[in-house]
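Notes, p. 3: input format for complexes.
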Amino acid sequence: MWFILFFGTREVVRDADRPGTGGYQTCPRCGQYALFRPRSARTWLHVFWVPVIPLGGATPILECGNCRLRLVSTS
Ligand SMILES: [Zn+2]
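Output follows (75 residues plus zinc ion):
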């Protein structure tokens, strides 16, 4: 069953083009006043670490520019 090691699911995070979202705010984890970038996260089925089939829709998130904390975007 060695092949189990080479496929599965993982979350892929990409930059999102959503004008009007993101911006500077105080991060709840690191406490810094940091730029939160709008990004989108989506779970993919991967084979040999290459995403091949998207599972479900993309989730809009905001990522802290300091500590990479990811928050689900409400906008
Ligand atoms: Zn942070």
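The two ends are 44 Å apart (CA to CA).
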